[in-house]
Amino acid sequence: MWYPGHIKKAKESIKKNLKIVDAVLELLDARAPYASRAYEYESLFRNKQKILIMNKYDICDQEKTEKWIDLYKEKGYVVLKTNLKSENIKKFLENKVAKHIPLNYKEKRAIIVGVPNVGKSTFINRFKGKKSTTIGNTPGVTKGVQWITVNKEIKILDTPGILFPELYNKSIKNKLMAIGSIKGDDVTKDDAVFYIFDYLKVNYPHYLDNIVEKGSSKENAYEFILEFAKKRNFIKKGGIGDYYRGRNTFLKDFNDGIFGRVTLESPEDYEQIKI
Ligand code: GTP
């Protein structure tokens, strides 16, 4: 599903609720610090305190991601980094986030936004200590908008993951597929896998060596995926690797950070950065 109806509804709901919050917590994937920014929010959130939370910091290439953090800080954002799978969320909110939320009402109110799969369900569920929303590697799992009471002082409004397809060029789409924010069809999955392969080949060539048999060719993505499939025992009649199973597993493993720490973009890659 590329642009489901609930995303449109979620955008309307976010707009409506913005009037009653003092800060915006934007959750990002630290492996794609620009592509995973929901940068259309900028126009909506003009007068709000903005706090960028770089999640999945545990599986990003920290040196590359830090360049983005410096850039965002220079532009006036508060930037925090985390691994929501292991962070104590209550302490994180109370000790690191709360001080940046202005107090305009009787309590501090923030809205949490982000593209799908950046970790919003993990954030909310781990905070609440029970499975109140479905967590999964499936974009668009969080459907409703709900208030979370952190303590007497802070309240957070959770929102569904939303996308801005009209703003995405091919490269952004590939990155969003690589981090699991867009699911895609056969063609776009091929594009994303080929893109990841080329990126790893140039930037992290040793990761590719580790996931196929020694001496395998890394000339082209298709051949590589066949080798990868064989290594995983996805073998078709005649001893050939099963391309489709190999491709889907490659995409999933990449998204889970199994190959190694990766960040898919640097500020230098962009001619113009709209933030
Ligand atoms: P939608 O519901 O689609 O909007 O997704 P979401 O943003 O709620 O993402 P969710 O919490 O479902 O997390 C997506 C995947 O990322 C899950 O497999 C999580 O376990 C994983 N994940 C979340 N936070 C982290 C993190 O800090 N590090 C790592 N390595 N994985 C994480």
UniProtKB/TrEMBL annotation:
Pfam families: MMR_HSR1
SUPFAM superfamilies to which the protein is assigned, alphabetical: P-loop containing nucleoside triphosphate hydrolases
Record domain CP-type G: where: 8-165
Record's function text: Required for a late step of 50S ribosomal subunit assembly. Has GTPase activity.
Molecular function per GO: GTP binding; GTPase activity
GO CC term, one of those recorded: cytoplasm
Protein family per UniProt: Belongs to the TRAFAC class YlqF/YawG GTPase family. MTG1 subfamily.
Endpoints of the signal sequence: none
Coiled-coil region: none
Highest taxon of the lineage: Bacteria
Binding sites annotated in the UniProt record for GTP: 55-58, 117-122, 161
Location in the cell: Cytoplasm
Matching CDD domains: YlqF
GO biological process: translation
Species this chain originates from: Geotoga petraea
Species classification: Bacteria, Thermotogati, Thermotogota, Thermotogae, Petrotogales
NCBIfam families in the record: GTPase_YlqF (TIGR03596)
Keywords recorded for this protein, A-Z: Cytoplasm, GTP-binding, Nucleotide-binding
Name the UniProt record assigns to this protein: Ribosome biogenesis GTPase A
